[in-house]
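Case study.
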Amino acid sequence: MDITLLGQHLINGLMLGVMYGLVAVGFTLFFGVLDVIKFSHGDVLTVGAFTAFATYLALKAMQVASPWLQLAAISLVAMLATALLGAAIAKYLVLPLRGAPALNTLLITLMLGTVLREGVRLIFPDGSNPKPFPRLLPADAFTWGALTLRVDTLILLAAGLGMIVGLHLVINRTKLGLAIRSVAQDGETAMIMGVNFTAIVLITFALGSAVAAFAGVMNGLYYNEINFGMGLLLGVFGFSAAVVGGLGNIYGAILGGFLFAGLQTVGAVALPFASAYKDVFALAVLIAIMAWRPTGLIAEKTSERV
Amino acid sequence: MKRTAVVLTAAWLAASAGAAAAKDKVKVGFIGPLTGGVAANGIGGRNSAELAVKLRNADPKAKYEYEFVVLDDECKPNVGVQVATKMAADRSIVAAATHYCSAVAIGTVETYHKLGLPVIVWGAVLPDITYRNKFAEVHRVNGTMINQNETAAKLMAGLGFKKWAVIHDTTDYGKGHNKYFSEALKPLGGEILGTYGVTADQQDFTAELTQVKALNPEVVYFGGLTPIGIRIRSQMDRLGVKAVFQGTSGIKSDAFIEGLGPLAEGALSFIEGAPVDKLPGGQFFKTEYDKAGYKEPPEAYGAFAFAAMKLILDRIEEVGPDRAKVNEALNRTANYDSIVGPVTFDDHGQNAVPIISKYVVQDGKWVVWEDSEYASGKRKLR
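After joint prediction, the assembly is written out as follows.
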């Protein structure tokens, strides 16, 4: 295979990996602090993307023309709105069910996901149709052989990787991160040590959801198109990535994201049969990995399993 | 002067004699979706078919007086089979123009075959309706995705394109388009460099499109619907795939243009049928339809319902109100002059020369190819 072609596949795969990783991080954070699986995560991403789009339309109506200002505003509004949404979901749906079997949380968030998705479809004007997401980044392109690289692709890739590094720093270098890690390790002990358990849970959900909104905006800017169903598949892929990486471990989630994206790319490119099977291939490999390492590639350090 | 008077008197006498002698009554049927989501199309079709009957009844030369029987299939296969059975079991109904919805039409062909009612499908486009079986009773005036792809291949090959890459969704719709387009392109010397099946809810196509890019095709053929059509076209741009975007009837929607903005420019689409003013007999049909005073528009397939019903009436006039004879006469139809162009039924009862329209996006609008600046050479497909 031509080296430039390989480069193009690599860029495509990296971009997908960053997006899957950012979604997977949310799943893994929520599982870390509360041991719950929140299936509405993908649809929270959709809400984030549509909030950004609505903000853009509002800015356009107010005649704010600078693309950088627009970009900053839509990202900020989308992340804030979904952070609030995430915290509200935690406060009113997830925390009250703490004593109940984990299955209940899973089901209730699964239903919530449908509510959010259909809500976006019905409330947003003409929401059933795909919406053109604005191009706010410079679209100059460089071409080497089969490799075409647009500046906006590079910026998005850098922003995504930056977000991952930022998350790493927050979790590992700040007091807030310490509190999140302590709650993840042992909620009761953390409380005894003076950590405000509820606040930390809410902040974690807000953080994970804001990261999902960031991924949603990235998704919109990358594909220049958003639709009400975009979060559904991203949610499934992100969750798979989180599980295969090891639920509860941030690096596992990111590793899982890149692994899944890589498998999909290989599935579409290298398999002799139709590319329609690329998801089948990628998910089948994940199943095989799960059979080999049931707790994921990087398991949570302090496993409570007896 | 005197002679004129004599002629006029004779004509008057002849006319009144014709009217006075009571004509035999003959029943013809119509089935379409008159309620439900696609009711507008069904009602437009019904009005148009009724118009054909009215015009015939007003014609003094007609041998019979026709009664128009209408049933509603609601675009539901189960209801469709019920009403089809009801109509076919009524032996006084000689022939019928039936169905707009493919799912209904494919479910009812067996009923017509068993009960021996000659029908002409006026709106459903699924190839299987005529081609899965070889029922002598089933005919169709409008085209299918087979004809659509033949027209598409002919236009594109005629423009000098030689190399294609095909992306299609893996539903029956997308797979059918892939199959029929590939078949139509081969004899014209076009080459398909690669074929990629994708799922209908896929978001990312960069891997497939990178492969496509390496093949360096002149045209990307896409068999599927608007949402992923938008994604593929948009991602082609991101990856720098410079090829013409050739779609099917599935992307002929305003949402496609709205979703892509300026990127939609130059995308192609092909659909069965044509806007009324592009039909050979469109002007006549429009005038008569307006004169009849219908409140609802004829919609896209009204002219086809009119043509189907007129063909039935012509055959009954020829051979008399007998199902078997009418059916035989219908099967012999070749180069019949209708308002939707010539009709020739092949051995499956499918109109072999149906009208297909070509569209191209020009300045944010779907423009009929022949009227576009791309056809006149002012702009070039890139």
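Observations recorded in class. Chain B has two domains: 23-143+276-351, 146-272+357-371. Chain B touches chain A at residues 170, 195-199, 201-204, 206-208, 210-211, 213-214, 226-227, 230-231, 234-235, 238-240, 255, 258-261 (CB under 8 Å). We will return to this complex in the next lecture.
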